[in-house]
Amino acid sequence: MKQILMDSSDFEKIFDVNTTDKIQSMRTMRILTSDVMQKLIDFKNRNKNGRQKPSIFV
């Protein structure tokens, strides 16, 4: 499994994005746009009960 480097360092501080498939990683980059990443960051900041760093597997 390989970690995908995202465009947002703030997103990477909160989420780990991993893949085993290079094609899926390219699709993930198209889905996780800057707007979507920001919405996930905002959601996580509003719900700080979780102690572990969330992971996204593609």
Q: What does it look like?
A:
The protein is of the alpha+beta class. The chain has one domain. 50% of the residues lie in helices and 16% in strands. It contains three helices and three strands; from the N terminus they run βαβααβ. The chain has helices at 9-14, 22-31, 34-46; strands spanning 2-3, 16-19, 55-57. The chain has a three-stranded mixed beta sheet. The radius of gyration is 11 Å and the shape is globular. The mean pLDDT is 84.
Key features of this structure:
3-stranded mixed beta sheet; alpha+beta; 16% strand; 58 residues; single chain
The strands making up the biggest β-sheet line up spatially as 1-2-3
Helix content: 40-55%
Beta content comes to: 15-25%
- Rounded to the nearest angstrom, the distance between the terminal CA atoms is 10 Å
> What is the 3D form?
globular
Q: What Rg is obtained from the alpha carbons, in whole angstroms?
A: 11 Å
Low-confidence stretches: none
Give the rounded overall mean pLDDT.
84
| Major sheet attributes | 3 strands, mixed
Taken in chain order, the helices and strands follow as: EHEHHE
Helix segment tally? 3
The count of strands amounts to 3
Q: Which class do the helix and strand fractions yield? A: alpha+beta
The number of domains is 1
